[in-house]
């Protein structure tokens, strides 16, 4: 008997301050058959909400497309300001294989979703990561460079013609990146300084594009509300670059500026293995593996 396929989707919407709008955006993801809304976290400084849903592929796709429709009506990027880079009201929509799913199936799902978004809402779509149609579009940061404001002209260039839709951004909703990828860890480390340049310098030490860790994308941001800065990052392969390794490196680099690490946070959900790996390091465990975790044995 064939087991159910389960896919995860983590759409990011460019609204982190208006709770009424956020609730309306996530509403289509609630109470749907074969779809489970797992988590949504809004950040006022980033002005962004990260949503995590999981379920049967077709059901998840349809629910997410419905939520994108709501976001398109409610968010006007001409009036949007925030610390996080963005090019769309719905900025990114990654599909992640969880159970009985392959990366290839997620790529197919991304293509179907992208086409429907463009056809239904008139929003241009770029495919990224494993769904990218060319190496130049694998990196989300490269696609999003210039953000909503710069995309107005960028999209008219032949090399940046969207994968779906016209070479013209939606007037208020911009453009969307839809992709397929393995699970990543969205991770922020807090610094007790308001000098964002220090956070940027530390970010350059750890991110791959500047010669740091292979699977790290990082930048510095100022969190006005808390009077701190953060080294904010995506760990795109936690099995190759561990959370603890990045955390310890940031602490080490912060010392040269007389800055302390206050703590850190996970944004959205995180694979258990990523946390177990760090726990084993800090506890000095040897010969430890996921096989010794109770929940792992219960899930089998």
Automatic annotation (TrEMBL):
Gene3D superfamilies: Formiminotransferase, C-terminal subdomain, Formiminotransferase, N-terminal subdomain. Pfam families: FTCD, FTCD_N. SMART domains: FTCD (SM01221), FTCD_N (SM01222). Its main location: cytoplasm. Its EC number is 2.1.2.5. One of its GO terms (molecular function) is folic acid binding. It comes from the Bacteria. GO terms for biological process: L-histidine catabolic process to glutamate and formamide; L-histidine catabolic process to glutamate and formate. Residues 183-297 form the Formiminotransferase C-terminal subdomain domain. The keyword Magnesium does not apply. It is found in: Cytoplasm. Pathway: Amino-acid degradation; L-histidine degradation into L-glutamate; L-glutamate from N-formimidoyl-L-glutamate (transferase route): step 1/1. One of its GO terms (cellular component) is cytoplasm. Keywords: Cytoplasm, Folate-binding, Histidine metabolism, Transferase. Residues 5-182 form the Formiminotransferase N-terminal subdomain domain. NCBIfam families: FtcD. This is glutamate formimidoyltransferase. It comes from Vallitalea guaymasensis. The lineage of its organism: Bacteria, Bacillati, Bacillota, Clostridia, Lachnospirales.
């Amino acid at each position: 008997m064939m087991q159910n396929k389960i896919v995860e989707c983590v759409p990011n919407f460019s609204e982190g301050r208006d709770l009424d709008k956020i609730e309306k955006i996530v509403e289509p993801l609630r109470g749907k058959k074969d779809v489970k809304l797992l988590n949504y976290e809004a950040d006022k400084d980033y002005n962004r909400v990260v949503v995590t849903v999981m379920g049967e592929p077709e059901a998840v796709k349809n629910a997410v497309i419905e939520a994108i429709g709501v976001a398109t009506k409610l968010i006007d990027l001409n009036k949007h300001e925030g610390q996080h880079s963005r090019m769309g009201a719905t900025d990114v929509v990654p599909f992640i294989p969880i159970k009985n799913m392959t990366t290839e199936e997620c790529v197919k799902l991304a293509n179907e979703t992208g086409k429907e978004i463009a056809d239904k809402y008139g929003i241009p779509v770029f495919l990224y990561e494993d769904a990218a149609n060319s190496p130049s579009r694998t990196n989300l940061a490269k696609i999003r460079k210039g953000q909503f404001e710069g995309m107005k002209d960028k999209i008219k260039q032949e090399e940046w013609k969207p994968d779906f839709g016209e070479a013209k951004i939606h007037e208020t909703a911009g453009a969307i990146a839809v992709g397929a990828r393995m699970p990543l860890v969205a991770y922020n480390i807090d610094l007790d300084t308001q000098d964002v340049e220090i956070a940027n310098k530390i970010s350059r030490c750890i991110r791959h594009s500047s010669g740091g860790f292979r699977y790290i994308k990082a930048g510095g941001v100022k969190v006005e509300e808390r009077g701190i800065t953060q080294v904010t990052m995506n760990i795109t392969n936690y099995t190759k670059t561990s959370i603890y390794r990045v955390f310890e490196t940031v602490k080490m680099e912060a010392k040269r500026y007389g800055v302390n690490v206050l703590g850190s946070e996970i944004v959205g959900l995180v694979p258990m293995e990523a946390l177990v790996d760090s726990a084993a390091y800090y506890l000095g465990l040897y010969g430890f593996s996921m096989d010794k975790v109770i929940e792992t044995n219960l899930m089998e």
